[in-house]
Amino acid sequence: MRMMYATGAGRFWKQLKSKPLAFTAAVVVLLLDQATKFAARYELMEGHPQEVLGNFLRIVLRYNYGAAFSLGWGGPVFLSVFTALACIFLIRYMMKVNHRKQLLWFGVILGGAVGNLVDRIAMGKVTDFIDIGITGWRWPTFNVADIAICIGGIAVFFLFKGARRLEVPTKETEK
C-alpha cells in the first residue's frame, strides 16, 4: 500500500515539474494578491475611500464575508471547502493538459482562488480594496485575486470556444 502511494505521489510531483508556466503564474498571482491585500490592511482605514482616478477609481478597505461580489451565501466554512475543492479540481485538470495557453490561464485562476482561500482560512473573510464606478453606481469592491479569476475565466472561455475539442488526453490517446 505504501509503495502505491509513493508511486502516485512521485508521478504527481513529476507532472507538477513539467508544468512550470502554470504554477509560476499561480504563485505570481498569489504573491501579488497577498502583498496588495497586506498593504491595503496596513495603509487603509475600513470604509474610508481614497480617490486614485477621481471618483471613478478608489481604494477602500472592505471585508467580504460572502462569495464573489459579497453575495451572502454559504458562509466562510462552506466557501473555504468549496474553494479548496475547486483548487483540487483545477490542479488535477492542469496535470492532464498540455496546451500552454490553457495552462497559463488555469494557473492564473488557481492563483486567484488560492489567494482568496488564504484570506478565508486566516481571517474568515476576504480583503477587498478596489472600488470602481461612476456617479452613484459602484461595482462591488474587489481585489487582485478576483481580477485574476475573472480574466483567467474569460480567457479560458475564449480558448475553449475556439477549440474543436478539449485538449485533455484520454486513455485511448495516451497509447
Question: Could you characterize the architecture of this molecule?
Answer:
This protein is α+β, with helices and mostly antiparallel strands and 175 residues long. The protein has one domain. It has helices at 2-17, 20-43, 75-96, 100-123, 144-162, 171-174, and strands at residues 50-53, 57-64, 126-134, 137-138. A hairpin with a 3-residue loop joins strand 1 (50-53) and strand 2. The longest helix is centred in the N-terminal third of the chain and has 24 residues, at 20-43. The radius of gyration is 19 Å and the shape is globular. The mean pLDDT is 84.
Share of residues in strands: 5-15%
Tally of DSSP helical segments: 6
Radius of gyration: 19 Å
Widest beta sheet: strand line-up: 1-2-3-4
Summed over residues and divided by their number, the pLDDT gives a mean of 84
Distance between the termini: 27 Å
List the helices and strands and how they pair.
Blueprint: H1 2-17, H2 20-43, E1 50-53, E2 57-64, H3 75-96, H4 100-123, E3 126-134, E4 137-138, H5 144-162, H6 171-174
Antiparallel strand pairs: 1-2, 2-3, 3-4
Outline:
The chain has 175 residues and is an alpha+beta fold. 62% of the residues lie in helices and 13% in strands.
Q: What distinguishing features does this structure have?
A:
175 residues; four-stranded antiparallel beta sheet; 6 helices
